[in-house]
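ok new one. same drill as before - structure tokens go in, u give me an amino acid for every spot. 363 of them this time. try not to just spam alanines like last time pls lmao
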């Protein structure tokens, strides 16, 4: 809905501020990135990841002359819809929700900022700009085919032109996500002992960065050496995106945001050479970190938490807090009720899901 313009901040700054003040954003501090929240205080959470993504996105957007505030808002909001236990929790919830339309964390982020945040007197959600909603919905590219139900519901209200690419600002947020997790997952994996500095020194990009540090700082202690090398990996990725995207934008002939949306390809990209090297890093992380035996063991445990909680709430929804009871009473059928249960579980932090599971199951 239309709002009176502020005398001291732009509409995109307002979007950013409302995202930061959202309850869903605060809960990201206790939602896992790869490791479950209680496993260690130094590992990334969804909150620290989102802040890192926003920092990278601001840098790239500024270098390319894009709208920094819009870029930052999309970056900060991109993970709002994540369940407890990261993609593991999402996979478990999606299976449980398949009879009721499934679950998708990107669509859930849109649902949060348009419906589930209920702080303002005049509207549900955060009343974000169309451009910000568009960026959250399709920062990874056009959304084609069968839409997740939560996104279809929102799109019927806002027509986010899902068949086109998003703005360059949202594209920057998407690649900043890749940059942030490729870098910090290497560091978190090292910290967890899943692999060693010597092993990642065999990876492209990483090898040259360690060699650069060794030349400049011979004899540096292992902790500082690791940090210096990985911050250089960060720099390589950011510089490549800026240089590649600047050329793509110039060659595209685009004169407007609409031109960018309708080009048929993203203008924010890694170079083909760097992208090939990043695929090697991602393959290494998938095998050695995301599918490591210790991580897989925890994945099985936390999947069961979600699998147990869903039928408990579906069969006895009054187990949910009283502020949900109005929605429960208004639910017209089992599908509507299941979606409310899904909203509730998806909003949980890791620690709350574990605590509630123990309370309700005695295990």
């Amino acid at each position: 809905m239309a709002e009176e313009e502020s005398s001291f901040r732009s509409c995109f700054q307002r979007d950013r501020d409302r995202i930061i003040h959202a309850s869903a954003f605060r809960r990201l501090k206790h939602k896992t990135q790869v490791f479950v929240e209680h496993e260690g205080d130094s590992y990334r959470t969804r909150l620290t990841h989102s802040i890192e993504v926003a920092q990278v996105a601001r840098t790239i957007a500024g270098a390319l002359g894009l709208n920094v505030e819009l870029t930052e808002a999309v970056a900060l909001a991109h993970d709002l819809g994540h369940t407890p236990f990261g993609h593991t929790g999402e996979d478990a919830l999606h299976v449980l929700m398949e009879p009721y339309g499934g679950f998708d964390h990107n669509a859930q982020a849109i649902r949060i900022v348009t419906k589930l945040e209920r702080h303002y007197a005049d509207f549900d959600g955060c009343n974000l700009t169309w451009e910000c909603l568009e960026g959250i919905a399709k920062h990874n590219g056009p959304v084609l085919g069968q839409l997740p139900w939560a996104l279809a519901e929102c799109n019927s209200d806002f027509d986010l032109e899902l068949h086109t690419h998003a703005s360059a600002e949202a594209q920057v947020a998407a690649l900043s996500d890749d940059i942030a997790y490729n870098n910090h997952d290497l560091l978190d994996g090292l910290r967890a002992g899943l692999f060693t500095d010597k092993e990642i020194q065999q990876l492209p990009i990483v090898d040259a960065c360690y060699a650069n540090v060794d030349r400049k700082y011979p004899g540096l202690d292992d902790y500082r050496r690791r940090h210096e090398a990985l911050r250089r990996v960060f720099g390589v990725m950011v510089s490549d995106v800026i240089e590649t995207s600047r050329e793509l934008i110039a060659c595209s002939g685009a004169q407007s945001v609409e031109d960018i949306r309708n080009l048929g390809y993203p203008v924010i990209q890694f170079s083909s050479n760097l992208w090939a090297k990043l695929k090697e890093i991602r393959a290494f992380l998938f095998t050695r970190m995301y599918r490591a035996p210790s991580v897989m063991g925890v994945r099985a445990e936390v999947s069961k938490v979600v699998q147990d909680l869903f039928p408990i709430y579906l069969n006895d929804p009054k187990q949910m807090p009283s502020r949900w009871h109005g929605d429960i009473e208004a639910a017209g059928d089992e599908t509507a009720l299941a979606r409310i249960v899904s909203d509730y579980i998806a909003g949980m932090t890791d620690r709350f899901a574990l605590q509630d599971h123990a309370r309700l199951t005695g295990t």
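The mean pLDDT is 94. and btw The chain has three domains: 11-158, 168-294, 298-361.
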